[in-house]
Amino acid sequence: MKFLQKQLDKIRPNFQKGGKFYWLHSTFDATETFLFVPGETTHNGAHIRDGVDLKRTMFTVVIAMLPVLLFGLWNTGYQHFVALGKADTASLLDCFGFGLIQVLPIVIVSYGVGLGIEFFFCQIKGHKVNEGFLVTGMLIPLCLPPTIPLWMVAVGTAFAVIIGKEVFGGTGMNLLNPALTARVFLFFAYPAYMAGEYRADQEYIWFTANRAEVADGFSGATILARAAEGKAYGYSAWEAFIGAIPGSVGETSTLACLIGAAILIITGVGSWRIMLATFAGGAAMGLLLNELTPSPTHFMAMPFYYHLLIGGFAFGAIYMATDPVSAAQTDRGKLIYGFLIGVFCVLIRVFNPAYPEGMMLAILLMNIFAPLIDYFVVNANKKRRLARATI
User: Which member of 9, 34, 222, 290 has the greatest number of CB atoms within 10 A?
Assistant: First the structure.
């Protein structure tokens, strides 16, 4: 590494003011800080109140997403072979290899488009390149169907970076979670490709196959879609927990999400208050609806624990809701913020089946209210302190 540092020191004057490559100074700075810890503090945007800098924090989140990514690669291949009726003969390597071929281009497009736009904005503004997109670039592929066209990934990523982040000032200044901004844009712009059972060209959403290839009697519908239609769920709670079911690339396995949650909590990067409160809110609303359900086949009758295991609930609670920029900042505010996300997620799922994945809208809604929650929490704390001072 010393040799690499010496080489960077040698060419640095070319990228400083007056150098012939000064116009690429943001790119040089991004490369250097990617390889070595910078020797300066943050001047604006996101601030990490710890000895760990922003880059190390982002890398920790990426590492925490690896269990979800690896399981998603396997599950993408597994669902393909299940659809063809060949799951019994497909090996672990077959499933993983097929998933890698299907998902890797989505990851490459997400990072390529997002980083390209970020570098462009930094160059024209003269700003330093931030590391926020290291996480966003991975979250976007994980919350999308494995069969989504690559041009849609590019459009959604561009929308997230430009409209969701750069117009607010870049990393640390955004009001909404950028990855969810990409997902919600694609959901409303191309609903048939995001949440339908089939795409317009009659191919399936959650696995790569067309109708002529699938095994007889195979459905491929998700648990959420079945429940919204009043049908049997098709998968047990244990199967939903493990995650070998149809769904977005990284959202099916609650087990993999919990492994990532442990990494985030142990390293102090993710808020356990938000995670715990989100699961508590979803469970509380699920239990309440179970008591009020008009019939055993109604969506309201779905056991509360199913809501916590299916769709993007665990993925959203652990990786999306805990976004340090768009979430509530106070300890009590985090509990309120997370609880309401869980509540609204279940409410949206049950009472508006047109949006079967309620987690996305619930988090974005609470992103808007997070500053207001902190405002009331801080004011309440001030009133309590003033009351004690008077006494």
Answer: 222
Helix H or strand E encompassing 124: helix 92-125
Token reading at 262: 């442990």
3-class secondary structure, 229: coil
- Cα dihedral sign, 47-55-177-284: negative
Number of Cα atoms under 13 Å in the Cβ half of residue 136: 34
CA distances to 30, 50, 131, 155, 364 from 53, rounded to whole Å, are: 14, 7, 10, 31, 27
Q: Does 29 have pLDDT greater than 80?
A: no
Note the pLDDT of residue 70: 95
196 has pLDDT over 80: no
Compute the average pLDDT of residues 325-339.
Answer: 93
State the angle between helix axes of 358-390 and 331-351 in degrees (0 to 180), rounded to the nearest 10: 150
Position 47 scores a pLDDT of 55
For residue 197, give the 3-state DSSP assignment.
Answer: coil
By the 8 A CB rule, do 67 and 256 touch? yes
Q: Look-up: residue for tokens 């396995």? A: 253
User: Under 8 Å CB-to-CB from 156, ≥6 apart: which residues?
Assistant: 140, 144, 182, 183, 185, 186
β-sheet bridge partners, residue 210: 203
Pick from 324, 325, 328, 315: nearest CA to 360: 315
Q: Please give the model's pTM, rounded to 2 decimal places.
A: 0.84
Please state the φ and ψ torsions of residue 218, each to the nearest 5 degrees. -80, 135
